Amino acid sequence: MHIRYLLTFRRFFLYLLLGLFSVHYAHAADNIFVNYSKSEGLVQNTVTNSLEDTRGFMWFSTFEGLSRFDGYEFKNYKHSSKDPYSLPNNFTKKLLLDSSGNLWVATKNGLAKYNPLKDNFTNYNKDNSQLNSNEIFTIALNEEGDLLVSTTANLYIYDDLADRFLPLSANGVDLPVNIKVIYSEQDKTWLGSLGQGLFILEHPCSVYKNPTLGI
How far apart are CA 103 and CA 121, in angstroms? Predict the structure, then answer.
């Protein structure tokens, strides 16, 4: 009785493994990988970020420009010193869709907003806006859908009605510089800095804490 049960269990276990292997193989066989590179029209082979916009286009930021993919071919965007409505810089770091569906591009030398009707960009930098640095570290949305912009020197919130960038502070205290990561929740925003640890910006009381330092 015991031996028969053991043999039956072993047989069942073997069938189970074979079945799982067959299912895994079937799913693996369904995976199709397609490689897109400069040979297929991508502007550059190092992709830093990607997203899909409200019209279904896929966008890819790279070290040497921006690519838009319609499912068939790429259209590439690069900086041109002769065109003020081109990208401000080819080193594109981060892409983001705001709450209105606008595409923002963070670059090493300014921030760009894509204009779909004209197929060009409105650029923001320290010469034509309130930003005090041209290098954009990251961009994100806060809990209310407002655009947050981190430069090498400050964190800003974008006022879309006034088309202005307002420096953020907490109870009159400047926020840490060199913010590389922003993650916003309903009651707080997490700020990851370059070399200064992690900060928490608490929304109700507008204060921030540094859990790395225990404060």
Answer: 10
Task: Enumerate residues 6+ apart whose C-beta is below 8 A from 109.
Answer: 88, 89, 91, 125, 134, 135
| Bridging pattern class, strands 207-209 and 155-159 | unpaired
The domain limits of the chain are 38-167
Chain Cα centroid distance, residue 62: 12
Rounded Cα gap, residues 10 and 13, in angstroms: 5
Give residue 199's pLDDT. 87
Positions of the chain with pLDDT lower than 70, given as ranges: 1-29, 204-215
Q: Domain 38-167 falls in which CATH fold? A: Methylamine Dehydrogenase; Chain H (2.130.10)
Q: Are 131 and 138 in contact (CB under 8 A)?
A: no
pLDDT value of residue 11: 54
CA atoms within 13 A on the CB side of 25: 6
Is the CB of residue 95 less than 8 Å from the CB of residue 105?
Answer: yes
> Alpha-carbon torsion 140, 143, 145, 146, what sign?
negative
Q: Could you tell me the sign of the dihedral formed by the alpha carbons of 120, 133, 135, 196, in that order?
A: negative
Residue 189 burial (10 A CB sphere; 0-12, 13-18, 19+) = buried
Q: Report the pLDDT value the prediction gives residue 19, as an integer from 0 to 100.
A: 57
How much is the pTM?
0.80
Contact 86, 79 (CB under 8 A): yes
